[in-house]
Amino acid sequence: MDGIHDMGGTQGWGTVRIEPDEPVFADLWHGRTFALGLASMGVSGTNLDAFRHSLERLHPLDYLQHGYYGRWLSCAEQLCVDSGILAPGAVEARARRLRGEDVEEPADVETRKPQYERGGAGSLRDIDAAPKFAVGQPVRAKTFRKSGHTRLPAYIRGHAGVISAIRPAAVLPDSTAHFTGEDPQHVYTVEFTSTELWGEDSEPATLFIDMFESYLEAS
Amino acid sequence: MTDYPHSADYPSPQLRVEALEALLTHFLRKLGRKRKAPDFVH
To answer: What is the pTM of this model?
Structure first.
């Protein structure tokens, strides 16, 4: 889906500051949020792709203001609400009580975890279909726009590249994020030039983007 | 279209972590009461 999360390939965000001695968790609550994020996927019966899709659905202002682990915290909460583990507003109400406000907490709700079958552990799968594309073959990223989850970045769509490598087949996040099946398919590393993506005046560079087979068409 | 409302007065992340941990613990304890204890192999 379109949204503030898909900022790859865009400009105007300022210089990326790299901290040479950056700690794994800059604050205690970051580490606890990391653990809660992983726990939320297990408790809610969802998966990593559903977690990423919940990131995409954050309010744009919150996405930009809350920072990396702030986003994780919102998603952990949302997955639990989606699956009926927590009532909507339960975390906010409890947090307000913790800071001394006299607010009523919502009653427990009925759990409604998603029902879907996994084809195995992890994301890699063996499939019988032969790869549709070969190394060295020109391809073009499709221009589709989805209201749901996809791992095809907006700045790649419609642009031409060349297959650089064929990777192991994997489940399609566009499908698993919505619990509609795994739809495993081949994954390709596709080589794009910066001039193809951003025009002749762009800084010379080569980009290698991993893409699912259904994201590509022959060029 | 976002699913989440924006609140300018949302509690701090530290308090939300405390709240989420407590609520998940409550849920898991409630779940545990409904389940038979697992048979561990020694």
So the answer is: 0.89
